[in-house]
Amino acid sequence: MNRRALLKLAAAAPVAPLAIQFVPMAQAAGHGDVTQVIGVQHFRVGDWIVTALLDGSLPIGPENFSNLSAEEAEAFTRAAFAEGPAMPTGVNAYVLRNGSQTVLVDAGGANAFPGLGALPAALEAAEIAADDVTHVVLTHLHPDHIGGLLGEAGPVFANASIHVSSADIAFWTDAEIRAQVPEAFQGFFDLAVAVIEAYGDKVMPFDGDTELLPGLAARALPGHTPGHSGFLVSSGDAEMLIWGDIIHVAAFQFPKPAAAIGFDVDPETAVTTRQALLAEVAESRLTVAGMHLPFPGVGHVVTDGEGYRFVPQDWTFAL
Ligand SMILES: [Zn+2]
Known about the structure:
Blueprint: H1 3-11, E1 30-31, E2 34-35, E3 40-45, E4 48-60, E5 65-66, H2 70-79, E6 87-97, E7 102-105, H3 119-125, E8 135-137, H4 143-146, E9 150-151, E10 154-155, E11 161-165, H5 166-172, H6 175-180, H7 183-199, E12 203-206, E13 210-213, E14 216-220, E15 229-235, E16 238-242, H8 250-253, E17 260-261, H9 267-284, E18 287-289, E19 298-304, E20 307-312
Parallel strand pairs: 7-8, 8-11, 11-12, 16-18
Antiparallel strand pairs: 1-2, 3-4, 4-6, 5-17, 6-7, 9-10, 13-14, 14-15, 15-16, 18-19, 19-20
The protein binds zinc ion.
Residues 142, 144-145, 245, 291-292 line the site of zinc ion.
């Protein structure tokens, strides 16, 4: 872990002070009487049904990135036909079902940021009851991935075990590190501690690359956080890697993987991990899914000039 980098970047963190408070579910921005529909889309990976669920969006501007010049940001924004300067960045979660298990991968950021918190409505639209979730697997302990785990009455997924890397638990529950970061960043630690405490002995830490269930394996993808992990979903020959926060803003980081967001605990390692994984999946043609890829965030990566390009998966007509 690069603590100096954490302190430096945390000081520049763009978030408003985090308070753990309960706010009404985010309303999608509307025009007149028309509001955007709830985001739910199903995919198949062998015997798994993978359901993408949209929790909401966060605006992330180019000023939050290192290794990204103003000229590059402008060119990438124009190439993406986006308005800019801030990019509306989705927050996705996924549910994996195989007939016996219902696995939620990340839980969105309800109560942590405005604009998030649609996960319960998306679960309802997908006809998935919170009590039916058997496992929650977490890519990392940032608030936009764990805020949805806690409601006013405590744990939202009361029957689920919680699987998260021990490296992330160690970092985000470390009072000494918390004491050294700026106040605006301390809420990250407080929410992680609240979640770990609320789920108590249902929290099952894993280390590195680990099979969590038949057909579901954690893969260490460190840098963004010390224990940041992806999850490989597999069944027969079919595979999908849910890669968490390998990409935060697709329009910037596919063409320039060296661009690093200010939330990275160790930006150098995050960049190395991103570059290696993009090269790997472009070569292997593995299907990927990501928490901040444009909803539903499922597709493939191809090389494009000096960088990469994301090819979203088309609508699946039949499952
Ligand atoms: Zn995130």
